[in-house]
Fold this sequence. Notes:
The chain is an all-alpha fold.
Amino acid sequence: MEILGKKGLGNFLKIMLEIVLVIGILILAIFPIILRNTNMDINPNIIIFYPNAICLLIIIYHFIGLFDSLKKSNPFCENTVNKLKKAQKISEIASGFWILDFLYEAVLVRISISYILVLAFMVILFIGVSIALYILSELFNKALEYKNENDLMI
């Protein structure tokens, strides 16, 4: 299967991420209305849900830009490096929110161990994603340097 170009895998993934982004925005917009209609009290988990959800939507937005460069058959450009670095920083921020939620649940609320394990997993996951995005951004930056150097030699 072709990866680059308009008929490639990158374009398909870009379309899928655009759909996920729209659905995510709709869920964030409808969620307060659902809570208001059910007369539920504001749960502190909801307060931490929104910043994490917004961080995820911003990361998805940056990945849409990454897959757009695959569609244009130009993955090694400055835009790719910048999108990866921005997604990495947003992932670090999301890690911080997960850590706050983990500490709140583990220390103050002291709920079930399974929920705390899920939060610990999310903290580790987002820290791992942040590290992976940093490595990818450095890799693409180095590849861009080599590409520019090669272009100058020709």
